[in-house]
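Record 1 of the preview.
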Amino acid sequence: MKVSEVKNKFGKCLELVSMDPNFHNISVGLFMKNNILTVWSYSRKEGIENRLNIIRDKMVDFGGLINSKEDYKMSIPEGALIERPLKFLFSKCVEMSPDAKPEKGIISAKDNKTKLTFTVKGSQESDKYVYTVTAEGEHEKPGLRIRAVVGGFMKYGQCLRNEVDSFCFPDFKAHEEYVRVLLPYARNVSAVEQMLEASDQAGQMTTQSLGFSQ
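->
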């Protein structure tokens, strides 16, 4: 299909991963039309259809999305149409090992700047679902790092600050899968900004009006 045909059929390109490390370094895009997401590539390498469905399946497993009967497609549950977390989810699912499995249980991650370990727990408070960040380990001012993590969720998850140590998603609902996806990014905003800038530059070099590297 031509670029215009792809955009008309699948909607806008929400995110582009310039190099798929698990499949010939091709470029892969995530498109969105209404509440339907489509994983697509212009590559015609042998096995591309299976690869696109693998990425779609990973997004369903890791993001709580709804599998579609159609190849490469999935739908977004009501309230889960939050673009920034979807972008990070897509990038993660392209880059992860095909054998990777979703984590279960407590949502936590070690701080890459200190000896702290962050934990994020959610609870229903009146009419909103609130996620609270706590930290364990050695640090002179753990509260500063906790506030920074909350700020990371606001930046990358479009979240709203509830208190200095807590946040909500914009629909005030629970999104455990998004929290798991975002925590590694939210804990180190400066490094993620550098990563995104490099990714954007690579994407610009490998796409011409959304004509991805094949």
